[in-house]
Amino acid sequence: MALKKNPKVDLKRKYKRVFETSLIVSLVVLIAAFKFFPKFEDENLKLDGPQELIQVTDVEATKQEAAPPPPPKPPIPIEAPSDDVLEDIEISETELDIDAVVDAPPPPQAKEEVEEVEPVFFVAVEEMPDPIGGIEGIQKKIVYPEIAKRAGVQGRVFVKAFVDENGNVNKVELIKGIGAGCDEAAMAAVQQTKFKPGKQRGKPVKVQVTVPVLFKLQ
Question: Is 180 domain-assigned?
Answer without folding.
Answer: yes
